[in-house]
Amino acid sequence: MVPAIQVEKVSKHYGALRALDEVSLTVERGEFFGLLGPNGAGKTTLINILAGLVLATRGGARVMGHDVVRQYREARRALGVVPQELVFDPFFTVREALAFQSGYFGLRHNQDWIDEVMHHLDLAARAETNMRALSGGMKRRVLVAQALVHKPPVIVLDEPTAGVDVELRQALWRFVRRLNQDGHTIVLTTHYLEEAEALCGRIAMLKQGRVVALDTTQNLLRRHSGCYLELRLQPDRLPGTLAPLVTQRREGGYRLALRDYNEVERVIAELRAAGLGIQDLEVMQPDLEEIFVQIMRGADGQESGDDRRKTMDERRGQDGALHEPIEKIR
Amino acid sequence: MSIPSTYHPLQGFYTLFRKEWLRFWKVNVQTILAPVLTALLFLVVFAYSLRGRVEIFPGVDYAAFLVPGLAMMSVLQNAFANSASSLMQSKMTGNIIFVLLPPLSHPEFFSAYLLAAVARGVIVGAGVFLATVWFVDLRVEHPLWAVVFGFAGSGVMGTLGIIAGIHSDKVDELAAFQNFIILPLTFLSGVFYSIHSLPPFWQALSHFNPIFYMVDGFRYGFFGQSDVSPWLSLAIVATSFFALSFFTLWLLRAGYKLRH
């Protein structure tokens, strides 16, 4: 079977800048695929090449087997793109915007499907509202609906949850999950790593225009065999022998990185020997964020702590707050 | 029982045309009524101040001479403005992606924007004609010629508007295009006078202005008189149209400023 997306040695240069450098990847049909990376890694450029909005300097890409340049009509018919920017046409209502989008794809009598899409995205009540009068979240929903009017087998969402409230984010993911279960291939870029971890079966990580990791989410998580130990001590003082393990000094506690679970015993023994009481102890699995940070650091091996902090902040989003636990998204 | 959606090869073109049509029609006070009013003001000011003093074609009142010129000027300016401002606004707001993501072919894209521009130009032109015909004694000798030049002229300017809209990234770039190219060419095309009344140098120069042929041919449709043969004018206007159209299609195929 032809894969949903094939990207072969795609490069995109803007003068001296290499936005993409020989990127190759394949997304099989029915996958839920994540595209991760810091700002400027080339995620949007790659998506725009698939959508035909950007022409690759070298290399080629196919959507459902159709070359995005030579067979652009077939390729675009197979692809639905939710752009990152919150764009809209201020002249028209929600229903008009969706009817136009459906018409551009050559479809007639598509009203039933448009109504269904509006229903699933909670847009039905605002169908006759002018786009200008909608809130940001509502505009985002319309963008998603516009990408779906032609029932594309492959759906690409470029950071659809940036700046979106919790309720919409969860509604959106429920809907996208359902589309995936119905057989649509989903490609997602996001800054929120919990989202990627919860949703994506496979993940590619990009950095400075190159793929630095490409594996199933499970394998990526397994790649890191260690675990984390969070401790609160009484008195609040760590024995010197354990100091090298500390990754973070938190309010009233410590976070230690361990090579494997057996090390937990040693840590406890040393704490006892030092006469310290354990107030609280938590053993934690590494999450995608830890792996992301490791891979991003390892990709060129000389990144400073500042960069690490930057990546962490990005993950927290512009509002600086951590987002809801994975369980809720599921 | 619901009707299943069906694919139709012309639906993409038709939808884009319809969207472009609604874009100007929804604000017709600004896009139709305002230019008609502007043309009327020109007519009042020039016709009354020059009445009796100028007779360009024998037996033709200056006000009557002026009406086709003003109508054509409105046709041309509005055809240009329609495609140019639509494309530039879409690029600036980013909603151009809604027409770049679908599988619209280059000829579909081109002809939809073109047809909407022609529609607005012709509607404004007809509006100027209908508004003036009540108080200016105007005869129409060859209506077919007038219609042909009305459509051909707006076709050329609609195409130029597409090129300008694709090229301009900012409002002032488009304004420069409009103020330094379109406006001088229209004003110096014989809208207000016959080029025979110009000194030889300017008369010769006017022959390099394609808009002169549009206005001259259009006027022939009304009075059966013109500075040059309507056939020559038609040949030049048609050649300009095809040359600009091929150039625009080439720009679209290359992705100039739209697909980087």
Describe the structure.
The complex is a heterodimer of chains A (330) and B (260). The C terminus of chain A is likely disordered. Chain A has twelve helices and 15 strands. Chain A is an alpha/beta fold and 330 residues long. Chain B is mostly helical and 260 residues long. Chain B has one domain. In chain B, helix 3 runs parallel beside helix 6, helix 3 packs antiparallel against helix 7 and helix 9 packs across helix 10. Chain B is elongated. Chain B starts with 5 loop residues before the first strand and ends in a 6-residue tail after the last helix. The relative contact order of chain B is 0.14.
Helix content of chain A: 25-40%
Mean pLDDT across residues of chain A: 84
Low-confidence stretches of chain A: 301-330
The separation of the N and C termini of chain A measures 30 Å
**Regions of chain B with pLDDT < 50 over 5+ consecutive residues?**
none
Oligomer: heterodimer
Percent of residues of chain A in beta strands? 25-35%
Instruction: Round the Cα radius of gyration of chain B to an integer and report it.
Output: 19 Å
Distance between the termini of chain B: 45 Å
Overall, the morphology of chain B is elongated
The class by helix and strand makeup of chain A works out as: alpha/beta
Question: How do the helices and strands follow one another from N- to C-terminus of chain A?
Answer: EEEHEEHEHEHHEHEHEEHEEEHEHHH
Number of helices of chain B: 10
Strand content of chain B: under 5%
Please give the largest β-sheet of chain A: 6 strands, mixed
* Number of domain units of chain B: 1
Mean pLDDT of chain B: 92
Strand order of the largest sheet of chain A: 6-8-9-3-10-11
Q: Can you count the beta strands of chain B?
A: 1
- Count of β-strands of chain A: 15
Main sheet characteristics of chain B: none
Outline:
With 330 residues, chain A is α/β, with parallel strands linked by helices.
Write the SSE topology.
The complex is a heterodimer of chains A (330) and B (260).
Chain A: E1 5-14, E2 17-27, E3 32-36, H1 43-51, E4 58-63, E5 66-67, H2 72-77, E6 79-82, H3 94-104, E7 107-108, H4 111-120, H5 136-148, E8 154-158, H6 166-181, E9 185-189, H7 193-199, E10 202-207, E11 210-216, H8 217-223, E12 227-234, E13 246-250, E14 253-258, H9 263-273, E15 277-284, H10 288-298, H11 305-316, H12 326-329
Chain B: E1 6-7, H1 11-25, H2 28-50, H3 62-93, H4 97-100, H5 106-132, H6 143-167, H7 171-187, H8 200-206, H9 210-223, H10 230-254
